[in-house]
Design brief:
8-stranded mixed sheet; 433 residues; DUF4043 family protein; alpha+beta
Length: 433
Amino acid sequence: MSQTSVPRGSALANKQFSKALSAMAVRQPTPMTALTGPMPTHDGAMRKLKQQSTTEMPIVRVDELSKGPGDVVQIDCAHVVKLRPVMGDANAEGKGAALKYSSKDITLDMATIPVSAGGKMTQQRTPHSMRLNALAQLKRGIPAFRWQRCLAFLAGARGKQDGTDWVLPLASDAEFADMMVNAIKAPTYNRHWVVNGSSLTQGGAQLASVATTDALKLSHLDEFAAIWDEMTVRMAPIMIPGDPAAGDDPIKGVMYHDSLAWDALLTDTTATGNLRKFEAEAMQRAKYGELGKHPLFSGAPIFWNGILHRKMQYAIRHDASDLVKHITAANRLTATETDVTVAAGLSTTHQVATSIFLGAQALAVVSGGNQTSEETYSLLEARTNFERNLELAGEIMGVEEKLRWSLPNADGELEPTDFGVAVINSVVRKRNV
C-alpha cells in the first residue's frame, strides 16, 4: 500500500515547518502577546477592513499587509475635539466642532535570521536532530528579536546592554538602522521624566544632572500616577479582555521596569513605601472577572494607583558620559532631537535605567505574508557544499513602530506626542558578574 511521502526540502515540508515556527514564535512568552488585544469579531468596520486588532491595549496589531501586496500601511488617529454647547434658541447650525485626524505611514520589511545546522559529519557525530535544534533556536530568537525592537522603539533608544540573549545589535552596529526599518525616536517632551531626588523632572535634559541617589522609589510610582491624572494630552487607559471594572475603575497602563530598578523598588524602605500593599492590590484586582487568567497578571506584579507594574526581561541602560537623544522644552512643538550627556558623576558604579509605561495604542506591530502563504514567520532551508551542509533561516515579514501624533495641547498648539508610551529614567547601581 503506497504512502504519501513528504521529502525534506519539499515545498509542503517547508510550509508545515513554517506554520509550526509561526505558532511557536507567536506563543513564546514574550510581553508582545500579552500586550496585544484580540482581532475584532464584529463591529469596528474600519478596523476589520484594515485587519487591525482592538485599540484598547498597548500594542495594535495590523495584519492588513498579509492579505495582499504592498509595503506601507497607514494608521489613523482621531483627535479628541473640544466640544462647546449652544444654549437655548441660539443658532447651532454651522457651529459644530471640526473633526481632526492625524495619519502615520509605517514601512514593512523582511528580516531573515539564519542558523547553520552543520554538515553530514556534524550530524553523524550527534544523536540530536540538527534541523529540530535549529528550529528551537529560531523559536527563541525570533520573538526575542521582535520584542527587543519593540523595546528600542518604546524607550527611544537601544541602550548599552548586550549579550547572547540580545539578537538586536547595538546602535553602533553598521546594520542597526536597517534592522530597525523605521527610525527610533526619542521620547517626546511631554512623555519623558527623570527621577530627581524625591520627585520626577519632566524632559530628558535632567539626565545631565542625575546623581547616584536618584534611584526609583515607590513614592515615584505615586507621583507618576498623579501626573497621569493631570496630563493635558491624556493617555488612554488600557482595557484588558475579561475586566468587568474597565469602565468604572480603568487600568491606566502597564509599567515595565529594568531589573535593577525593580530591585530598587523591592528594597525601598522609605516611610511611605508599602510594597506588600502594592502586591496585595495586584492580587485583589486579578480577582475581577477573568483578569487572573490574563498573562499580564501572572507571576508577581504590583498594582497601585491604577498602574500595573512588572519587571522587564531586557534592559535599556546608559552609562555615565553617554550621549542620549532627547527633546528639550524649547523643541517640544517640533520634536527636534538633540544630545544630552549623562552626568559623569555616575562613574563606573552606576547607570541610567529605563522604565517604560504603556497605555493604549503605544506601538503598532505590522505583519505581512510571504509569497506562498499568509504566515508572518517562514522557515527557509538551503543546502551547500554539494548538498552536504544544511542551513536554516527564520524569515520575519513584519515591523514595529511607536505611535506618535501631533495633538492639541492646553494652548491649542499641535504638539508631537507619543500617544501611548511614557519613559521614566532612574539611576541604578551596577552589579559586576
